[in-house]
Structures are given as structure tokens and as C-alpha cells.
Amino acid sequence: DGGITQSPKYLFRKEGQNVTLSCEQNLNHDAMYWYRQDPGQGLRLIYYSQIVNDFQKGDIAEGYSVSREKKESFPLTVTSAQKNPTAFYLCASSILRPWGYGYTFGSGTRLTVV
Amino acid sequence: SQQGEEDPQALSIQEGENATMNCSYKTSINNLQWYRQNSGRGLVHLILIRSNEREKHSGRLRVTLDTSKKSSSLLITASRAADTASYFCATDYPGANSKLTFGKGITLSVRP
After folding, report:
1. Residue B100 to residue A42, Cβ atoms within 8 A
2. N or C: which end of chain A has fewer CB within 10 A?
């Protein structure tokens, strides 16, 4: 079955640590996205990528980094510079052309700072 | 912010009733989409309506779009307990380069 897989489902981070969230898709989608979800705030875009080896900052990129070395993979690193990383992180993918078919989301990673 | 706003923030209805949720946005759009999120899970794409469309149906879902009022509504008919979830509208703006802007969501509770 085609889909998008996020791992791990739960992640605990100590203060000052970098952690990496995995996102893999086998849908042959060109574009991939990372969103952060906090209670009552909806989804906010962290980074997105439309092509391998290229990515763009979203609205809240500070304290995060990404890479896109393969079309299927778009890992997100939460660095120690992110002051409030506890949140639910969602990865999504979409085709680019023709546009207008919606995003496919993964099941999310819940990150907690301990 | 170009974020869409859903209304109401929370809705509680009895099974079998219809649920109507609204979304307003601020600038012209290419299309508007509705997503559902079950607790602790990812979002699921429900339906997309383009700026030149006024109404669209998918099963028990009916979406309308009024570009003059910059608003959309999602109607779920004959609701079921399994429809309990959060619902988000997302807008695709010209020049947004494929990025969607999501609202804060509506929490729907359907009582058995």
C-alpha cells in the first residue's frame, strides 16, 4: 500500500539534545512538508521541499533543519536552538502537477522534552 | 496572517443530525480543502473545491464555496459517532507555491 510513514510515534528529548524525526513516502510525490501542531493553534509550516536537494523555510523554521537527499525521504531535525519543541509533528506529501489533489499526511510524531 | 478561520470552534450534536461547519479566509484562493483529524492521528483529506466551483458533494459531505464572501461551509449529513473528530479547512493561495494554510480546526462531537 502506498503511504507516508513517520517514526517514531513518540519521542522524548532531553534539554540541549538534537533529535531527528523520520518521514518516508512511497507515493512518488514531488513535494513534502513538515508541520507543527500545538493545542488550539492548528498547523504551522516548518519546512517544505518540492525537489530533491532543495527545501524552503516555512513560517516557523527557527530551531529546525531538514534535508532532502532522496525523493522518498524528508527527515526533520529539532535542534537545541528550538526553545519549545514539545508538540505534535506532522509530515505530509503531495503531487505538484497537476495541482489540486490535497496532501497525504503521516500519522505524526509526538515530541516531549523531559 | 492568511490563516483561515473555522466557526464554530466546537460543535456537539446527536447521532443522525446534520453538522455544519464554516470557514472564512482573507484573500483570493486557488482552492479550498477540508481535512479530518482523529485524536492523536494525522489529517485525512476529505474534499477539495476550486475557486470556480460553488458546490461539491462526496458521500455524506457537501461543501459550498462563496468567493464573494470569502467563506466555505462543510455539511456532514446524517452524522455518526465515527464522525467525531477535528475538522480543518486549508486554503491554497495564488503565489503560495503549493503550500496550504490551515485554520485552527473545529472539534465535532457526535453523541450516540
Report:
1. no
2. N
Asked whether the bond before B94 is cis by omega within 30 degrees of 0, the reply is no
* Cβ neighbours for A108, distance < 8 A, ≥ 6 positions apart: A6, A9, A37, A88, A89, A90, B40, B41, B42
Q: Name every chain A residue with its beta carbon within 8 A of the beta carbon of B95.
A: none
**Record: contact B104-A41, CB cut-off 8 A:** yes
pLDDT at B1 over 70: no
Measured in Å, how far apart are chain B's first and last C-alpha atoms?
Answer: 38
pLDDT in tens, A75-114: 999 999 998 999 999 999 999 876 667 999 999 999 999 8
CA dihedral A23, A36, B111, B61 (to 10 degrees): -70
The average pLDDT across A53-68 equals: 96
Confidence band, pLDDT 50/70/90 cuts, at residue B3: low
**Could B45 and A45 be called an inter-chain contact, meaning their C-beta atoms sit closer than 8 Å?**
no
| Nearest-by-CA chain A residue for B104 | A42
Residue B23's closest CA among B60, B57, B63, B50? B63
C-alpha angle with apex B107: B103 to B111, nearest 5 degrees? 160
Nearest CA in chain B to A35: B102
Return the pLDDT at B6.
86
Chain A residues within an 8 Å CB radius of B29: none
Q: What is the pLDDT of residue B2?
A: 52
